[in-house]
Write a structure and sequence with these properties.
9-stranded mixed sheet, QueA-like, 343 residues, globular, alpha/beta, 6 helices, Thrombin, subunit H
Length: 343
């Protein structure tokens, strides 16, 4: 299976630069998994496709305002860090720019000095390990000093940092938003609850590797990034009850999908679990955890595009993408949505 099979052309004007004023006003392309038929709707219409006894599974990870800009204490050279992952207490893996100005022992000061970073290790491709030095609560400091780590294809300034968080974001840890959930409002979720749909939360902390295109020629040669996840006991119990009662499990986003599929690959039923996953889902994969998926439109040659192709079939997905392009849907993080529904 070749990576080029998952390529497509996209006009730059279709890459959404800013979120819509109303979260749930995005377009919704409904793809019926079995027939391959399309419907063009608005995201708030998603409730029409959910039935009592179904479960809607959302990722409650919260994006860290992880992009911080400071200066070296000795030369005052400007240094940018993007915090990626906590390695151990106060030690973080990050992307640094420009890395060539750093060495082990370099001290970087941010803002008024309430946060400092000491370089502890230099790796390839801009990866740097730092020890963070501060007093108080780190996330409160980052909320003051940091900005959202928007993807590189977004060039517009984000006026409201909260628009790169889902309205139910809770557990700090992501380097990027689980973007399929950005379309939900409190009102829409409440109406879904009242319809009898079980709303279930899992956690997967999204890494930047999620958005990187696959660069190897053969899909099977790609090495997936690792992400930390949690499926709690309450969530596992509800998921098993939904399955037992004949309801469908509808994942919100590829991140929720990765949690559920990883868990079911380990156990015969949904089981409480804390762990890491590097599951790579591409056509030929047999889904065990989900029936349907709400997702955004993904980058060419990405593992996310391969995942949705595994669920609906590559030919159907590529046709759906051409349908979205023809109808000028907005693509990627702040773009429109797709529902792949198992009728």
């Amino acid at each position: 299976m070749r990576t080029d099979d998952f390529d497509f052309d996209l006009k730059e004007s279709l890459i959404a630069q800013t979120p819509l004023e109303q979260r749930s006003a995005s377009k919704l392309l409904v793809l019926h998994k079995k027939s391959g038929e399309f419907e063009h709707r608005t995201f708030s219409d998603i409730i029409d496709y959910l039935q009592p006894k179904d479960a809607l599974v959302l990722n409650d990870s919260r994006v860290i305002p992880a992009r911080i800009i400071g200066e070296k204490e000795d030369t005052h050279a400007v240094i940018e860090l993007l915090l990626l992952k906590q390695i151990k207490e106060n030690e973080w893996e990050c992307l640094s720019k420009p890395q060539k100005r750093l060495h082990v022992g370099t001290l970087i000061t941010f803002g008024d000095g309430s946060l400092k970073a000491e370089v502890t290790k230099i790796l390839d491709e801009g990866i740097t390990y730092v020890k963070l030095l501060y007093e108080g609560i780190l996330m409160e400091i980052l909320e003051h000093l940091g900005t959202m780590p928007l993807p590189p294809y977004i060039h517009e300034k984000l006026e409201d940092q909260g628009r790169y968080q889902t309205i139910y974001a809770k557990e700090y840890g992501s380097s990027a938003a689980p973007t399929a959930g950005l379309h939900f409002t409190e009102d829409l979720l409440e109406r879904i609850r009242k319809k009898g749909v079980e709303i279930i939360y899992v956690t997967l902390h999204v890494g930047l590797g999620t958005f990187r295109p696959v660069v190897v020629e053969d899909v099977h040669d790609h090495q997936m990034h690792t992400e930390t996840f949690l499926l709690g006991s309450d969530a596992a119990e509800k998921l098993n009850r939904v399955r037992a009662n004949g309801g469908r499990i509808i994942a919100v986003g590829t991140t929720s999908t990765r949690v559920l599929e990883t868990n079911r690959s380990h156990y015969d039923v949904f089981t409480p679990e804390v762990g890491e996953t590097n599951i790579f889902i591409y056509p030929g994969y047999e889904f065990k955890g989900i029936d349907s998926l709400i997702t955004n439109f993904h980058l060419p040659k990405s593992t996310l595009l391969m995942l949705v192709s595994a669920l609906a079939g590559k030919d159907k997905i590529m046709k759906a993408y051409q349908e979205a392009i023809k109808n000028e849907y907005r693509f990627f993080s702040f773009g429109d949505a797709m529902l792949i529904i198992d009728d």
